[in-house]
Amino acid sequence: MSINVLIYNGPGVSQTSFAHTLTSLRHLLSPNYTVTPITPASLISDPWTASCALLVIPGGRDLPYVASLQPGATDRIKQYVREGGSLLGICAGAYFSSARVEWEVSTRMEVIGDRALGFFPGTSKGCAFPGFVYESEAGAILIDVKVSEKDGGEEMTARGLYWNGGGYFDGAEGMQSQGVRVLARYSDGAEGAGAGKPAAVLCDVGEGRAILWGPHIEFPLNRQPALSAASVAAAAPKPEELVVELEAARLDLLTENLELLGLQCSTRASKSKGVDPMAIVGTLPQLLVSTPSKPHIISNIISALTPILSPMPTSANATCRILEDAHDTFRVHEASMSSEVMTQARSRKVTDEKELGAIERDIVVFEGGSLPPAEQTPLFSLTTYFEHLSLARSELHLKENGKSVWGIGEAMLYGERVTSTQTLLDKNPTLLSTLPSSLLSLATQQLSGRGRGSNVWLSPPEGCLQFSLLLRPPQSPAFRPSSLVFIQYLFGLAVVEACRKVLPNGAGEKVRLKWPNDLYVKLEGEGGEVLKKVGGILVTTNFGGGGVADVVVGCGLNVLNPFPTTSLSQLLSPQDASALTLEHVAATILPVFEQMWGTFLARGGTFEPFVDLYLQRWLHSDKIVTLTTTTPHREVRVVGITPDYGLLRTVPTSGGESMWGGPEYIDLQPDGNSFDMMAGLIRLKK
Question: How far apart are CA 318 and CA 247, in angstroms?
């Protein structure tokens, strides 16, 4: 199932509209979909259509859209929608998605012309109301619209939607035979050319649909700039009347539109009585714990951190210490403060993602092998995890280390809800370089999880295993820096092998690797076998003084996620799925990786001992793909990865020899290319 919601962000896009679109859609669509930006270059050349559930063109300026997107991107967008895709166009995005635009005719701002998308087959005219001022909120007002009921019943009034330059869809009422349905019209009492005219339309386009809105349905009504616009909108509610219920009604209206476009939304905002529906839950404390069998671990970690911690200057808690790092500020508490710190954090909410980023991060330290009470970690049992970890280490005969060293996964920062386990480590260099390795940072939910490149890792409240692991390879002439690229391959292989251990009845054999760092499963579909992504690996490396490499391995794996997200549990019978736990999966992966990591280091960082197994577990051997990174495009066969730098190795299907007489190899870097496995294409990343 398609799980990406892509919001166009390029020349002409209003960053205010973009930001509100991003926030509103993430609020309504999480955890079912990843909501992320897409650029003009990506719309033109990247393989976005196969995984896209919705493309959104937000407000801004129509003419820059034309210059940036026609014809390359518009051709792909039209094909995407005609073949069953969904599009939401707002304000300028609605003008751009119509067959023709007539805007501010006979004024100095006049824009007249045909448009390539033509999802609304008529003319979008504007402005619907007078007073618009470019790149300003001076002419913005709040307007009422009459929303058409699906069954033809009485119209409902949506009050106080933000308007700033949007148009109306001329003649839409008479276009039913062309697949057009009016969803909303401007109030008859409004003053302007748009009064009583269609404000929103649903357009059937081939197998797909487009919904276009003149008003800004994405703008929250209890935040700026809507609050300021209320004071100049004659028929709109006054600022003091812009209460939570009004904003909830806007979100419910947006929810209905998203459902018309085939998306599955979370609980309707109107059910959150008396609560700001756009409020964001804050982060919760991270708990620094270790396996109870090795009570010395946390004391060693705190001893290493003590030189960089300072007393909290204004805290009533004299034991609280603070670390101000590059990206975050951390407050470190003793275990005795755990209940108080957790209670305060659970009651905290923020109004936007910027405020979320400004919150200080709490860490509660549990020394001596102690663990927090189970009620403080209701979604992840630390006791169960460490029991599984001990058993898995014993089965693999992993040696017990001395007091200064411990096994992978035996020291952990656990947070029920964090921003990003990866960011908390690799964007805070002082903390990162001071922490002993290895250290596991695991979260039940990430509020801004990271994937490879600019990708976002979708993180639901429960069901996804997500963690980051700090490693520090030894400084040795035998370990080449170029070997670091193999860590992503090694960890992916460890996850696949662990799935074969933890998933019963051969289900783990359906978990496979996609180059360079994705985890897929093979499922049975209506047309036969289908491949679905269930996870991914992200490795970042920071070089400190003396050439020390701080490696952070991030992993996200869908284990128990409900439909529509694909997860490991869907490979199992209901009975077997009920026995699958995040604790067991995590405690199986880490010892498997530790065993491989030991071999990798002992062999000087060579991937050679793992190559045969890796090629057995990946999806690509002997696959024929089209290489679009060359001119002209070439058909090549995938044969493996290079032993020196881990590049994807291909050979032309037409044969050919190199200048030295051997086979002609075309080797591709993992960070420079996009492997569209479904389409059989390898593209150069833009």
Answer: 42
- CA pair distance 237, 215, nearest whole angstrom: 16
Answer yes or no: are the C-beta atoms of 88 and 57 closer than 8 Å.
yes
DSSP 216: B
CA distance 596 to 443: 24
Q: Alpha carbon 404 to chain centroid distance?
A: 37
Q: Is the pLDDT at 454 greater than 70, yes or no?
A: no
Q: What angle do CA 296, 299, 303 make, to 5 degrees?
A: 140
What phi, psi does 95 have (nearest 5°)?
-55, -50
Could you report the per-residue pLDDT of 478-503, keeping only the tens digit for each? 788 889 999 999 999 999 999 999 99
SS3 601: helix
Percent with pLDDT over 70 in the chain: 86
Summarize the confidence of residues 558-586 as an average pLDDT. Answer: 92
User: Do the beta carbons of residue 641 and residue 515 sit within 8 Å?
Assistant: yes
What does the block give as tokens for 303? Answer: 């001893």
DSSP letter for 399, please: P
* Phi/psi at 657 (5° precision): -125, 155
Q: Which amino acid is at 406?
A: W
CB 614 within 8 A of CB 418: no
Q: Model confidence over 188-244: pLDDT tens digits?
A: 877 888 999 999 999 999 999 999 999 999 998 877 887 777 654 444 444 454 557
Report the alpha-carbon distance of residue 380 to residue 582 in Å, rounded.
8
Burial class of 318 by CB neighbour count within 10 A (0 to 12, 13 to 18, 19+) = exposed
Q: What is the dihedral of CA 179, 185, 188, 194, to 10 degrees?
A: -90
Q: Which two tokens stand for residue 473?
A: 């390879």
Question: What sign does the dihedral 161-167-171-172 (CA atoms) show?
Answer: negative
Angle between helices 244-260 and 15-29 (to 10 degrees): 80
Contact 576, 504 (CB under 8 A): yes
User: Could you tell me if 434 and 550 are in contact, meaning their C-beta atoms sit under 8 angstroms apart?
Assistant: no
Give CA–CA dist 531/510, Å, rounded. 10
Secondary structure (3-state) at 355: helix
Nearest to 260 by CA among 203, 197, 177: 203
